[in-house]
Design a protein that fits this description.
alpha+beta; four-stranded mixed β-sheet; 25 strands; 25% helix; globular
Length: 506
C-alpha cells in the first residue's frame, strides 16, 4: 500500500515536553506543523514518563518563560477548583502532591489534559496535524538539508512528511542518526570536551540509567500483590556489594540508608514516599489515599545502556520488571501499597514510556561544558552567554551510570542557555527541541529538567518561525542575527537573563 504524503512548514518528531511547546509556539505564529508522538500522551517526562516537575529555587518568581509560569498557575487552578479540595489547596501557592522534590508535583493525567488543551485550537483549525502512535524511521537529506522524513505508525502505515524545517523533539534524539546529523551519546573523553571531570576515554555506552516509573497507592488495607517473575533475580542482584532492592542505596554522596517515611531513625531525614508524591490525601476532604511515583534509587536500571546498545529493547523490558519488583519488595515488607494506573493512563500502574535522562546530543556550534556551569567561589554567580535564548538551573545531577558506575551531584550556577547549543554544525534545517542540545554527558545532568526543556522547546519553535519568516538558515541567525532573535523571544515572554537582585546570590 502506498504511503501517505503530508506537507507542512515544520515537522516535529516527538511530542515531548519540548515538542509540545515548539508546536504551540509555531502554530501560534500561523505556521503549519506536523507532529508525531509514539506514546498515547503528549508531554514526555511530565506525562507519559510520569516525572513530576523538578524545578529550581526561584521558580515561583522567575527563571522560566511566561508560558511555563502560566502553566503552573493552571495546574493549581485545576486542583483549587475541585469541590473536594481542602484548605491547603485553596491557597495561592501550594503543592498538590505535597512532595519535597517539587513545588508543584501533580498527576500526569492532569498535565496531559492541560498540554493537550493548549494544542487543541490549532488541531481544530488545521494548523497542527498530531499523529499519535507514530515515530520517524528514515529521511531524505541532500547536501546537509533535510527534504522529508518518513514515519511509521502502530498500524503499519507509512507517512512521508515534506517540510522546510525539522525539529527533533524526541527524548532520545532519534532524528540525529536518521538525518546524518553529528552527535554524541554517553560519556565523552576529556580530549573531546576539554572538561577536567570527563574520563580519559570516551564510552558511548556509559549512560545515565533509565527508570520505568510506576504509581503506587497507599491503601487503607494491605491488598494482595502478585510476585513478579523476575523478583528472585533482582532480589539477589547487587551493585558494588550491596543489593539493589534494599534501603541502603548508592547515590552521589555514596551509600546512604533511605526509608519509606520521613524522620525514620538511622535513615536520611526525608522519606521516599513523600519524595515524588502526586496525591496527598490530607489535601482533600473525601478521604482519598496518597499516590506516589516510584522513581527511586532502587528502580534506576543501571545494568546496561538503553540507547545504541544491541540489547536496548531487552533493557527496557527489564527496567519495567525492576520497577514491578521494587513495588513488590515494598509490599513484601508489609507496606500497604498497590499499583495505581489511573493517574498514568495505564491499566497496570506503570508509565506509558521509560524516563530517559540522557539523550543523543548534537555536535553543536557551542557546547556547554562542566566548567561553564560549575559554581566556583569568587567568580560570577551567573553562567552567562551572549547568545542566550533562556535561563535555567539545576545541580549537575548524574545518576549512577551504566558502565563506570559514576554518580554526581555538583553545585552549579544559574545559567543561560546559548543559541549556539541549538545549532548543528552541518545540518542546515534541523533544530533540537528536547534534551538533545549541545551539552555534554556531564552538563546534560543540569539541562534535562522540566523548565529548561520547556524553554528549549519554545525557543526551538520560535527559531523555526524566525528563520522561515525571514528566509535565513538557522546558522545565519546564530552568526549574524542573534540580537534580532533575542528581541523576538523577549517580545513573546521568554526570559533571557536572570534578575540577580531578586535571587540573594552570594
Amino acid at each position: 500500500m502506498p504511503g501517505m504524503r503530508f506537507e507542512a512548514d515544520i515537522m516535529i518528531a516527538g511530542g515531548s515536553l519540548g515538542g509540545v511547546q515548539a508546536a504551540r509556539c509555531a502554530c501560534g505564529e500561523g505556521l503549519r506543523v506536523w507532529m508525531c508522538e509514539r506514546s498515547l500522551w503528549i508531554g514526555g517526562q511530565l506525562t507519559s514518563q510520569a516525572v513530576p516537575p523538578d524545578e529550581h529555587a526561584w521558580i515561583e518568581e522567575q527563571g522560566a518563560p511566561r508560558s511555563y509560569m502560566a502553566y503552573r498557575e493552571q495546574v493549581r487552578q485545576v486542583y483549587r477548583s475541585l469541590p473536594e479540595a481542602g484548605k491547603a489547596m485553596r491557597k495561592d501557592r501550594f503543592c498538590p502532591g505535597g512532595s519535597w522534590v517539587s513545588r508543584i508535583a501533580h498527576e500526569p493525567r492532569v498535565a496531559h489534559a492541560l498540554l493537550r488543551a493548549s494544542l487543541e485550537p490549532f488541531i481544530q483549525s488545521g494548523l497542527l496535524h498530531l499523529e499519535i502512535g507514530a515515530w520517524p524511521v528514515r529521511s531524505d537529506v541532500r547536501e546537509g538539508r533535510i527534504l522529508s522524513v518518513a514515519c511509521e505508525n502502530d498500524r503499519g502505515e507509512t507517512m512521508e512528511v515534506f517540510a522546510r524545517m525539522f525539529l527533533d523533539a524526541t527524548d532520545t534524539g532519534e532524528m540525529l542518526p536518521l538525518t546524518g546529523t553529528e552527535y554524541r551519546i554517553g560519556a565523552e573523553s576529556r580530549e573531546e570536551t576539554g572538561e577536567n571531570m570527563a574520563p580519559e576515554k570516551a564510552d558511548p555506552l556509559d549512560q545515565q540509567p533509565v527508570t520505568w516509573v510506576a504509581a503506587l497507592r497507599l491503601d487503607a488495607e494491605r491488598s494482595w500483590m502478585e510476585k513478579p517473575a523476575s523478583y528472585d533475580f533482582f532480589a539477589h542482584e547487587t551493585i558494588r556489594g550491596h543489593r539493589v532492592l534494599d534501603w541502603e542505596a548508592w547515590g552521589a554522596e555514596g551509600l546512604r540508608r533511605f526509608a519509606m517515611y520521613d524522620h525514620t531513625p538511622g535513615a536520611v531525614d526525608l522519606g521516599l514516599w513523600r519524595y515524588r508524591r502526586i496525591v496527598c490525601g490530607e489535601n482533600y476532604t473525601d478521604g482519598r489515599r496518597d499516590v506516589s511515583l516510584l522513581n527511586w534509587p532502587q528502580n534506576d536500571y543501571i545494568f546496561s545502556a538503553a540507547l545504541e546498545n544491541a540489547g536496548a529493547e531487552e533493557n527496557l523490558r527489564m527496567a519495567r520488571e525492576l520497577t514491578k519488583c521494587t513495588a513488590y519488595w515494598l509490599w513484601a515488607q508489609g507496606y500497604p501499597v498497590s499499583l495505581d494506573g489511573e493517574a498514568l493512563g495505564t491499566g497496570d500502574g506503570l508509565a506509558q514510556a521509560p524516563y530517559i535522562r540522557e539523550s543523543r546530543r548534537i555536535l553543536a556550534c557551542r557546547t556547554v561544558r562542566a566548567e561553564d556551569v560549575l559554581y566556583r567561589e569568587g567568580e560570577d554567580p551567573i553562567c552567562r552567554f551572549p547568545d542566550s535564548i533562556g535561563v535555567g538551573h539545576y545541580a549537575m545531577d548524574l545518576h549512577m551510570t551504566t558502565r563506570s558506575r559514576t554518580s554526581m551531584y555538583a553545585r552549579t550556577r544559574p545559567f543561560e542557555i546559548p543559541l549556539g547549543a541549538m545549532i548543528p554544525r552541518r545540518t542546515k534545517n534541523l533544530i533540537p527541541a528536547s534534551k538533545n542540545i549541545g551539552t555534554t554527558h556531564l552538563t546534560t545532568g543540569c539541562f534535562r529538567l522540566h523548565p529548561t526543556e520547556w524553554t528549549v522547546g519554545e525557543a526551538a519553535g520560535l527559531l523555526a518561525v524566525f528563520s522561515l519568516r525571514n528566509g535565513w538558515d538557522i546558522m545565519e541567525v546564530w552568526r549574524h542575527r542573534t540580537g534580532m532573535f533575542q528581541q523576538f523571544l523577549t517580545e513573546r515572554g521568554v526570559q533571557l537573563h536572570w534578575r540577580e537582585t531578586e535571587m540573594g546570590l552570594e
